[in-house]
Amino acid sequence: MNNKLIELKNKCEKCEKCSLCKTRTNIVFSSGIENSKLMLIGEAPGYWEDKKGEPFVGKAGQLLDKIFNCVGLSREKDVYICNTIKCRPPENRNPLPEEKNACREYLDAQIEILKPKIILICGRVALNSMIPDASGITKVRGKWFDGPYNSKMMPIFHPSYLLRNDSREVGSPKWLMWQDIKEIKKVYDNLI
Ligand code: URA
Against a cut of 0.85, is the pTM above it? Predict the structure, then answer.
């Protein structure tokens, strides 16, 4: 791992900036490769992520893998995955503003070190963090926004939302995700 990322991860491991440090088993820093052009920002670690110290390892993560695989992207080789906060909120509640604020410097530093070309903003909580004045996720998903360090950012549905919505009919959340991932792959393939 890049030295700066190692230092940052070590800092997170010792972090006591909010009360989530008292209940965490592990911090969940990231997965994937550090020179990836594609970064995905999720919400917060859940039960399994906290146990394993890795993002998106539960059911939502398995669906995320399938979504990337559908267009020939591999989570291990092509995508750097992290979350808006690095520690699990008890009972998987939404992160509180003070928790997001306390953790923000780590997310900003990950973006600064990696300088990804494409940032996928996964779900409502990540959208609120990254584009606070955007309308709801259903309105802005699939749209490109200008991101930090000349990146392009796209909000996408969270896989947990897709797990609760089974339909694949035209216009359904799963169908919309399929359109979005195809568009993302098209832009990804054209990156220099
Ligand atoms: N959901 C998220 O948003 N992030 C994870 O790491 C796991 C589930």
Answer: yes
